[in-house]
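QA checklist item 7 of 12: single-chain prediction sanity check.
[x] sequence parsed
[x] length recorded as 494
[x] structure emitted
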Amino acid sequence: MKKTLLSFFLLFSCLSLAFAQSKVVKGKVTDVKDGSPLPGVTVIAKGAKSAGTQTDLNGLYSLNVPDGATALTFKYIGYKDANLPITGATVDAQMDVDPKQLTEVVVVGYGTQKRASITGSIATVSGKETENTPVTSFEQALQGKTAGVNIQANNGKLGQGIKISVRGTASISGGTQPLVVIDGIIANQIDLSSNGATTDPLADLNFNDVESFQVLKDASASAIYGARGSNGVIIITTKKGKIGTAKISFNAQFGYSKPSGERKFLNTDQWLALQERAAIGAATQDVLQGFEPDLATAQADEKAYIEGKFTTLSAGNTNWRTYNTDWGKQAFQTAPQQQYDLNFTGGSEKTTYYIGGQALNQTGILKGNQFQRYSGRVNIDTKIFSNFNIGMNLNFTHTYNKRVANDDNFNTPLQIVALSPITPVIDPRSGLISGTPPGSSSSFPLYYNPLISVDNEYFHTNVYRTLGNVFANWDISKHLNFRSEFGVDQTNQN
């Protein structure tokens, strides 16, 4: 009796602990001066970056926060950050305008303006907010950081195409991708894939080299780019050297990914029972259609056929329950990731420099998927005269993308779930992956085995890209400036 009571007590304690791991906090965010609701305010649980949300049109929010969280941080462009303690289930916030942000210099088209002078809709994201994010492309790093910008991955494969839309879809037949400008150069965003599985040309950019992102959302903000800016413009400014002592920065990042929320499929016993039940139904239909003289004969024929099929799919084994393969798990793997960044920055009153390099090696959770990036950047600015300077911003990148087949093909990894659980991963008769020629590959296994493609199909892509410019800048007078530059964006893919 004591053991039983103790067990119930422990179970109740575990349930209580499980339900106490998070809680819901709600509230409203308003302007401190007039009390008007503020939509699009970012609300984050302090110390838990994964717990965040935005306020709706009425300034309301609802956030699931970890049990250990003690404060909320409220962020909104043009307003001072607000940090409030979590004192209950409701936390209301009032935010005050930040005059410093109104004097912030924003990159617009071919020049810069103070934020207070801008009439168009422009969102700014600092490079510090995306730095060292464990993703492969800057689009993924920007996800959820700017209101009105929707970023959606086509699938979970590394280096694959990503859709970006600024303030919704502006065209029915045209694309939705915004124009991307990097240090004044319009970046090439053409997908060069030839196998139907789209790639992301912008994955070549090392976003740890970025100083800031400016998203020009409306027509007035992006007008300088004409029709090309109709879907919005993303202006990327890379880091520059600063006057002062030379600084060396090294960062190493390690981690791994693994699938979650995996689906459950039929095991061997369930699958065999379903097939046997289907055979009985097929025998009844054969009699009704006049293909068999009676039910007993029809059932005998169907049984002989289905048992022969079981033996074939079990790699010739008459004990069909020998194997119980979970094919859903065979498509996935634990995926390690490592990234190294080394930067040199500094300069004198005459010359400033920023030199950066990165090595990224990330394995995908799908077998056969891997992405590697090796990049180097050199940004130099030299003052020849007090009013005349020259410089360059150059980036060299090599990416190696081990892709997998497109999602609508039978050889894509996730199509593996079509195989029967009575089929072994390795055919004991050949010692090879089931279905690998030579052998009975025409009738074994039930469908094509995508594991064969992991080591025997080639969807690899090598990209060598040079992106940058050289420039000369002449300050003729206080209000007149002349700048000339030559830019290049060269991509070689094989």
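[x] summary fact logged: The first strand starts at residue 22 and ends at 31.
[ ] second reviewer sign-off
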